[in-house]
Amino acid sequence: MWAVVINPISGQGKGAALGTYVAGYLATRGVSYEIILGKNAIDQGDALIRFIQKNPSTEGVIAVGGDGLFHLTLQKVVPAQIPLAVIPAGTGNDFVRTLGWSLTDIDSILDAVLSREAVPVDLGLVDGEWFGAILSTGFDSIVNEKANTMSWPKGPNKYNVAIAIELPRFKPRHYEIELDDRIISTEAMLIAVSNGRSYGGGMLVCPQAEINDGLFDVMVLHPISKIEFIKVFPRVFKGTHISHPAVEIVRSRKVSISAKAVAYADGERVGQLPISAECISGALLTWLP
Questions:
Q1: What pTM was computed for the model?
Q2: Which of 58, 62, 75, 242 is deepest in the core (most CB within 10 A)?
Q3: Which SS3 state, helix, strand or coil, does residue 45 take?
């Protein structure tokens, strides 16, 4: 038995359309499944837990939605060691990007799910909460805070508008970053603790991050002028920003960060710093291209 967890409103309705497609795909192949919906995220998470408890031999979970649904589902399947596949139906879909799947070739993902064994990949664990792509603090988290209060515009443009609002008043903060082999005490604009390569809908903040090396790529953006930031920012979509002298990237299995700041993981609010994170090898069972 499979669980199909659907966020029908993700991607401005894309979740509902792709959820229907996935259900049809499984039905025509004679695969037993149950659709998991909820009134809200907490209700949906509880429904998934009940399904897993009722079906101890659950074959896998297919999450149809964006990074928010992925993050929610992750918390439930990892402790149970149940394989998880993600059908990209959100605005970011960064974990699916990290795995290397095409965002438009849904059949390839489903074919792999039904024909191959899932394989282990790394996850991050921050203060007891699992994440798959990026844990971050600094300017991007402030932008997230702002974007979450905005009802307009919809989709990825909301993030760009939030950047325009927050950048003029942003100031770097002092961070204490404890790694496996050193402590970095520095002013910084942004820190990204990366298990995956991208966030924010394809921003390759750590383009060389691997999900099976047991290590985080930790990117520190040291202070630069706002004009320079505006010039450098577009390069993040190709990952070429890493050659800028203000960008420092180090690798570490464990990371602790202290500052007067807030952190986000997979686009979801983690809370105020300090935080401690660890890269857990092979924590998630999933499918790769």
A1: 0.91
A2: 62
A3: helix
